[in-house]
């Protein structure tokens, strides 16, 4: 267990990263889309389980309340659609008599292709219709799109260079009076502070956390409320291996959104030390927690 504070470790990490040549953007991580690795990562954490259940229950309640036969869902920043696929599975089974029309929007052509494959393999019910679109997040308009009953933005605000048009565009896509937007973002805390170290190498603009999202909504006069969901990552084996095995290295790569093999060994060591310093003991396990802020906007 590290005897140093997370703040001290992050300070050393900043110094190390300042002297290391950047080896490509975090999005250049094709190895992280490997099915075997994604399966391994899902086993280590309960993010997908917790968040998909929260979203599915929310949509279920809204859909039952409105009583309409069709329910329009949009996911802005759907990426590989792995989370959306689980949500749609839950909704399809919970409300078999309801037709769900899903539109996934991503700014990346490759992600759009991966999302299409994910949803095809997702065993979605016959009451789910799927459409995928490649659109710029900061140029969202209702051109060619019907108003949505529910819009999800899961951790996609980090990819925006300008938050105002992204949030304004999303709210304009909501059905008047009843539409709801849920923005999933991370609070500024140790796990997120680790991730930002790597984004900052190829970002020339601010990384928008939950705090900046809510501040922007307030500035735009958009009403919101925030709920919190805590998820966990069981990194027991990774701590035991010191993040040195191939499996452990892949998990660390996923957490920091980059391939640490391209960096100095000291960088990887400091990342592991930070994770250990912010983890908690749960019997024989070492668990790292992460708080997701569920920012809810109702278009009324």
Sequence-ordered SSE layout with sheet pairings:
Blueprint: H1 6-18, H2 35-44, H3 47-66, E1 70-76, H4 82-94, E2 99-106, H5 109-120, E3 128-134, E4 150-154, H6 163-172, E5 180-186, H7 190-199, H8 210-219, E6 225-234, H9 236-240, H10 246-256, H11 265-277, E7 280-282, E8 285-298
Parallel strand pairs: 1-2, 1-4, 2-3, 4-5
Antiparallel strand pairs: 5-8, 6-8, 7-8
Helix pairs in contact: 1-7, 1-11, 3-4
Explain what the structure shows.
It is a single chain. The chain is globular and about 55 Å long. It has helices at 6-18, 35-44, 47-66, 82-94, 109-120, 163-172, 190-199, 210-219, 236-240, 246-256, 265-277, and strands at 70-76, 99-106, 128-134, 150-154, 180-186, 225-234, 280-282, 285-298. The chain starts with 5 loop residues before the first helix and ends with a strand. With 300 residues, it is of the alpha/beta class. Strands 1, 2, 3, 4, 5, 6, 7 and 8 form an 8-stranded mixed β-sheet that branches. The protein has one domain: Rossmann fold (3-Layer(aba) Sandwich), CATH 3.40.50.
């Amino acid at each position: 267990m590290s005897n140093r504070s997370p703040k001290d470790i992050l300070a050393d990490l900043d110094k190390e990263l300042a002297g290391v040549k950047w080896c490509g953007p975090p999005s250049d991580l094709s190895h992280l889309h490997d099915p075997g690795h994604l399966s391994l990562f899902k086993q280590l954490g309960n993010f997908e389980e917790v968040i998909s259940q929260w979203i599915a229950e929310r949509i279920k309640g809204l859909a039952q309340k409105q009583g309409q036969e069709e329910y329009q869902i949009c996911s802005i920043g759907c990426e590989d659609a792995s989370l959306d696929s689980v949500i749609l599975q839950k909704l399809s089974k919970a409300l078999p008599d309801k037709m769900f029309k899903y539109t996934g929007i991503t700014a990346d052509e490759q992600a759009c292709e991966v999302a299409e494959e994910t949803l095809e393999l997702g065993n979605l019910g016959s009451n789910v219709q799927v459409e995928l679109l490649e659109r710029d997040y900061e140029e969202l308009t209702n051109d060619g799109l019907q108003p949505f009953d529910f819009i999800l933005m899961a951790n996609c605000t980090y990819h925006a260079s300008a938050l105002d048009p992204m949030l304004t565009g999303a709210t304009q896509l909501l059905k008047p009076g009843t539409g709801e937007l849920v923005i999933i973002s991370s609070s500024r805390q140790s796990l997120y502070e680790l991730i930002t170290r790597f984004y900052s190498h190829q970002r020339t603009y601010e990384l928008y956390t939950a705090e900046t999202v809510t501040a922007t909504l307030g500035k735009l006069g958009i009403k919101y409320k925030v709920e919190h969901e805590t998820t966990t990552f069981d990194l027991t084996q990774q701590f035991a291996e010191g993040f040195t095995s191939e499996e452990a290295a892949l998990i660390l790569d996923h957490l920091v959104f980059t391939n640490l093999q391209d960096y100095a060994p000291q960088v990887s060591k400091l990342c592991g030390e930070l994770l250990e310093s912010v983890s908690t003991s749960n019997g024989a396990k070492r668990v790292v927690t992460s708080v997701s802020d569920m920012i809810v906007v109702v278009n009324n």
